[in-house]
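Quick entry between incubations.
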Amino acid sequence: EIVLTQSPATLSLSPGERATLSCRASQSVSNYLAWYQQKPGQAPRLLIYDTSNRATGIPARFSGSGSGTDFTLTISSLEPEDFAVYYCQQRTNWPPITFGQGTRLEIK
Amino acid sequence: EVQLVESGGGLIQPGGSLRLSCAVSGFTVADYYMNWVRQAPGKGLEFVSGIYSGGSTYYADSVRGRFTISRDNSKNTLDLQMNSLRAGDTAVYYCARGVFFGELALDFWGQGTRVSVSS
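Done. Structure below.
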């Protein structure tokens, strides 16, 4: 079973700063990782698919990179609406879908 | 416009049953890999069950044998029959559409329906 570990658990930054969120897989997942944003009381929203492709309507300040076991979500300049919880996700042989435990991005 | 609307959640005693439904508009359920994902209070996201367009079904170990995923092509809905419910099943349940870009991502989600299992 592939385990996705996100770090840090909580990231405290100010608007305008750059955010770097990490997702590490317990074994190689090639170049196929997705990222989601979830705000309180809302469903998750797809941000990034296949490691680096922005989903429809996602601003260019969101970018993804990585390969193998180490992946990064970068928000180049934080807007007030970006403070939320972020999850990485991978389709694996079993279970079919695996999520990381999440990184909470909070206002400093 | 793509929309997914879950219903059927509520308060249920341990050992009871509930049937969740996800009404879909804007696309055909049978054409996609459809999923149920849950989120326990204050916790992260957990895959529950999925059904491929070809009909193959998958379940998390924690629900296999108790939950059954299905779809009603005539109504364009995704369902989750939940039996023998436990306190650990308490969560918000989301239906989500899976799309294989290079690999699978969940591109549309419903707003969720809350299931509380308690005596």
